[in-house]
């Protein structure tokens, strides 16, 4: 009887375990958060492809390279509409590209994006979204210098693409495609100045000029083909910036090549390397012990590689054509460091726009706004400044039922009779006035208060502290800083 009772208990325990595993067992069964699988930076913008196939873009956006359909700089990453199942992104200068699992390629931004005139909401700031590069199919890898690009095909061959303009209409651009002969078994490629370098399956590196210096133009199909071997074997990765290329040998040693050096040469102090990437005149290195290193190689003969402080347990690394890089730590956090011009590091804050961030910091999570249970989207950028949410006036206020207005103050004798902007927010029985003086002055229902409220400016737009305003107006707000979800109104209860 004891044995039978024990057997029954064991069976019940096993059933419980099976049900727990199948059902997920609470948090253990919750859907895993998407992780970055590919990240790339241009001159001052960034792209990230995620494990769920989505893509986010942020930063400098004059040409629509952030992919949000505007030319408004975005200090917070936004999800790019129309892109699904993406496995790699490639940014260069002010252009952006994405590759999906089917081998199709999409491009947007400078030269590759369209201008949309007379849009009702954005008559001068509307931009087209990603457009398919129809001459590229069955692609496995992309690289670009921001103008031209090389697609490595799934059969191990490569195709050069570049923009070309109609002789009779220099505003009409078309993409030209040129298969590159003489090299097979290609795994990846980079563009180094006027040269293309190819890493093959056998670990060799081949070099082919993609520019006809005699004719002063990019390579044509009729041009003679000369393929040089830079390394016969033993190379596991290549990267480039400008005219310089860097080769990572299988033993962890880093090599440098350019037309002046003729042959790749070993770099002192850059051994035990797991992965390398580049920025503008910068080499970023991830060592096998999980530390990050940087070499500003054109900063003088005495400049040496240095360890990036605060970067521990790093598992992946990505670069840019700007002066910043990105890394992934073992917790799955996407980090950025360097010179984050125009929000290229996606810190969310204009206060660090032009700072050189020497210690990697988290890339801000995309923000999603729910007002009374309904999703609200807006064109302008949001911000996270000093730990607070900031939004432009044309964002969530209309959906909340808040009436926003801007007038001019009376002449202020303390400031040579200058007239300041006065913003008003009316909701329920409360009217808030913010006089944009220095410091700002706050009025509630016509009475001046001693409370402080600070306005900011991002993308040439006044930004308002959303949490402060909601508290003053009696509007519920909840913000999940990890997921980026913001609930306002009834949805925040």
Summarize this, please?
It is built from three helices and 43 strands. By secondary structure, the chain is mainly beta. It is elongated and about 80 Å long.
The pLDDT mean sits at 90
Taking pLDDT < 50 over at least 5 consecutive residues as the criterion, the unreliable ranges are 1-31
Helical run tally? 3
Q: Name the beta content range.
A: 35-45%
Secondary structure: number of strands: 43
CATH topology of the largest domain: Methylamine Dehydrogenase, Chain H
Q: Which structural class fits the helix and strand makeup?
A: mainly beta
Total discrete domains: 2
Kindly provide the radius of gyration, computed on alpha-carbon positions and rounded to a whole number of angstroms: 27 Å
CATH level-4 homologous superfamily of the largest domain: Regulator of chromosome condensation 1/beta-lactamase-inhibitor protein II
Spatially, the strands of the biggest sheet line up as: 35-36-37-38-39
Q: What is the 3D shape? A: elongated
In this structure, how is the largest beta sheet organized? 5 strands, antiparallel
Termini Cα gap = 55 Å
CATH architecture of the largest domain: 7 Propeller
Mind telling me the CATH class of the largest domain? Mainly Beta
Helix content: under 10%
């Amino acid at each position: 009887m004891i044995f039978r009772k024990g057997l029954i208990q064991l069976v019940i325990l096993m059933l419980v375990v099976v049900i727990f595993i199948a059902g997920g067992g609470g948090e253990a069964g919750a859907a895993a958060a998407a992780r970055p699988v590919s990240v790339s930076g241009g001159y001052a913008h960034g792209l990230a492809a995620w494990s769920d196939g989505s893509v986010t873009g942020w930063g400098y956006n004059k040409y629509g390279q952030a992919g949000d359909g505007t030319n408004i700089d975005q200090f917070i990453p936004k999800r790019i509409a129309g892109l699904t199942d993406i496995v790699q992104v490639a940014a260069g200068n002010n252009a952006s590209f994405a590759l999906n699992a089917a081998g199709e390629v999409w491009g947007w931004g400078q030269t590759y994006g369209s201008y949309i005139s007379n849009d009702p909401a954005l008559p001068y700031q509307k931009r087209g979204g990603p457009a398919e590069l129809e001459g590229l199919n069955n692609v496995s890898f992309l690289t670009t210098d921001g103008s031209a690009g090389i697609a490595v095909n799934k059969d191990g061959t490569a195709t050069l693409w570049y923009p070309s303009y109609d002789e009779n209409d220099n505003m009409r651009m078309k993409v030209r495609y040129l298969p590159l002969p003489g090299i097979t078994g290609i795994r990846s490629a980079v563009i180094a100045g006027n040269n293309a370098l190819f890493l093959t399956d056998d670990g060799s590196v081949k070099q082919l000029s993609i520019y006809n210096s005699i004719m002063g133009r990019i390579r044509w199909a009729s041009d003679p083909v000369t393929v040089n071997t830079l390394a016969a074997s033993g190379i596991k990765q290549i990267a480039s910036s400008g005219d310089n290329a860097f080769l990572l040998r299988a033993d962890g040693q880093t090599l440098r090549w350019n037309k002046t050096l003729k042959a790749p040469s070993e770099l002192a102090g850059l051994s035990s390397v797991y992965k390398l990437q580049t920025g503008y005149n910068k080499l970023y290195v991830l060592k096998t012990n999980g530390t990050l290193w940087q070499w500003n190689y054109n900063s003088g003969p005495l400049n040496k590689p240095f360890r990036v402080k605060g970067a521990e347990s790093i598992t992946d690394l990505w670069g840019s054509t700007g002066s910043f890089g990105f890394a992934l730590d073992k917790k799955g956090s996407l980090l950025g460091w360097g010179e984050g011009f125009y929000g290229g590091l996606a810190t969310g804050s204009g206060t660090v726009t032009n700072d050189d961030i020497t210690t990697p910091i988290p890339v801000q999570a995309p923000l999603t706004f729910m007002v009374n249970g309904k999703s609200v989207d807006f064109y302008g950028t949001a911000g996270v400044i000093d730990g607070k949410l900031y939004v432009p006036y044309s964002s969530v206020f209309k959906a909340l039922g808040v009436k926003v207005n801007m007038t001019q103050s009376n002449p202020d004798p303390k400031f040579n009779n200058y007239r300041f902007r006065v913003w008003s927010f009316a909701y329920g029985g409360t009217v808030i006035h913010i006089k944009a003086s220095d410091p700002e002055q706050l009025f509630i229902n016509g009475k001046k208060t001693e409370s402080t409220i600070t306005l900011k400016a991002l993308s040439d737009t006044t930004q308002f502290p959303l949490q402060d305003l909601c508290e003053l107006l009696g509007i519920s707000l909840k913000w999940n800083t990890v997921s980026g979800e913001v609930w306002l109104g009834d949805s925040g209860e």
